[in-house]
């Protein structure tokens, strides 16, 4: 049976979407450390209409991060279907990796969001705060189920309150990236 086309947000206001988002839960990704915590994304609109993406996570007390760019998948569509492009490995950016970033749900206040992509291999629940009301979380999980996601793979991301400020000690050698590729 073919999976139905996912519903995505229409009319995304990129200016309102910019800023910091905390990862409340996600499907584990080989591009993130398995013991990552305080994972967050910061989006900044550039003059050319693209978005600078800074993804950060802390692992063993050190900050790992990668920067990339997001842009509309179809400039003529009002659907919130974006493409994100990162270069890997992050310490020697030579290989472009492009993925889908579809905003499946966004509350009216731009306070929390459900992000996915057409293969349903990746899913994120994001919030402007480090913690989310359990009822809202459950509603987003139900939306993911309705869109055909296997939410048994969903993993809650530990978040500190307050979150780490600044950059902290960095993993400058990209060791987190190699560990994540090896599944550690």
Automatic annotation (TrEMBL):
GO biological process: lipid metabolic process; response to reactive oxygen species
GO cellular component terms listed in the entry, alphabetical order: cytoplasm
Domain Lipocalin/cytosolic fatty-acid binding: from-to ranges: 12-159
Positions of the UniProt region annotated as Disordered: 153-173
PROSITE patterns: LIPOCALIN
Family of the protein in this entry: Belongs to the calycin superfamily. Lipocalin family.
Record protein name field: Lipocalin/cytosolic fatty-acid binding domain-containing protein
Taxonomic source organism: Carya illinoinensis
């Amino acid at each position: 049976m073919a999976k139905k086309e996912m519903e995505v947000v229409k009319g995304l206001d990129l200016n309102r979407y910019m800023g910091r988002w905390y990862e409340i839960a996600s499907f584990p990704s080989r591009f993130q450390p398995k013991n990552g915590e305080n994972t967050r994304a910061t989006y900044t609109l550039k003059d050319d209409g693209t978005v600078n993406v800074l993804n950060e996570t802390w692992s063993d007390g050190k900050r790992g991060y990668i920067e990339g760019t997001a842009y509309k998948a179809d400039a003529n569509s009002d659907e919130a279907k974006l493409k994100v492009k990162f270069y890997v490995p992050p310490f020697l950016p030579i290989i472009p990796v492009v993925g889908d970033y579809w905003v499946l749900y966004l509350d009216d206040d731009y306070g929390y969001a459900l992000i996915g992509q057409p293969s349903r291999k990746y899913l994120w629940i994001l919030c402007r705060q480090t913690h989310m009301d359990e009822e809202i979380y459950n509603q987003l999980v139900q939306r993911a189920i309705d869109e055909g996601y296997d939410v048994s793979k969903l993993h809650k991301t530990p978040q500190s309150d307050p979150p780490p400020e600044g950059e902290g000690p960095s993993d400058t050698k990209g060791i987190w990236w190699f560990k994540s590729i090896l599944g550690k």
